[in-house]
Amino acid sequence: MSIQKEIILRYRSAGHLRFALPAALCSAAVALLIERELHGIEGVYRVSLYRRQGKLSIRFFDTVTDVSEVAKQMQHILRKLEKEGVFEVGEAPQSKQHLKKAAITQKLRNSRLGTWAQEKYQEGKETVTALKILAKKTGGKDAPAFLQNPERTAMEFANDILVLYLIKTHWQRIMTQWLPSPWRHRYEWLAVVYMTYLWVHWRHKKD
Question: Quick one: which H or E segment has residue 201?
């Protein structure tokens, strides 16, 4: 029986999927392989596999991808790993090599340096995804002519990077604190509105 038939969907919503996993997918090396592969799906910014509880949580930007596409990509990844024999007791030589490398990577990942690197990688991935969202919304229609006005182009680029950096830095606070309690964080929202006004005014200012 295919390993995918043992996976149970526990929860689904816009931007979030949660599954119950069989024991075969919860060993340290196999779990690391699954997480690494799932992180490669476009739009996915967080993958959490809880080995003891046998749970898998996938969070993604629903403006980049959707539930059906993430589930489809996940099935493709599991099918590929299953063909390689990763989930079997008697793995093929290639699969054993993969598991050995994954076990070493797991030890490094659990170290203090590994934890720091993982956090920075996730922050970078979220930033890249945010850039993709911004690129899709603008469509490149208002791209400045660098050769005609290099100074203005440099200023626009610096402003865009600053806005994206501020969004990335405060994203968790926005989602967990500012949105649930808008009045308590009214001064933060006033600052956001004012900065947004300045940014939009700069982007659409006539020469």
Answer: helix 186-203
pLDDT digits 0-9 by tens, 30-68: 888 888 889 888 888 888 899 889 999 999 888 888 899
Residues 6 or more apart whose CB falls under 8 angstroms from that of 128 comprise none
Distance in Å from the first CA to the final CA of the chain:
66
DSSP 42: T
In sequence order, the 6+-apart residues with CB closer than 8 A to the CB of 21 are 6, 7, 49, 54, 55, 56
Which residues, at least 6 apart from 165, have a Cβ–Cβ distance to it below 8 Å? 127
- Residue recorded with tokens 């200012």: 205
Report the residue count for the chain. 207
Distance CA(118)–CA(73), nearest Å, equals 22
d(CA 27, CA 41): 22
The pLDDT of residue 20 is 93
Domains of the chain by start residue, with CATH: 3-118 (3.30.70.100), 142-203 (no CATH)
What count of other Cβ atoms lies within 10 Å of the Cβ of residue 30? 22
Are 17 and 28 a contacting pair, CB within 8 Å? no
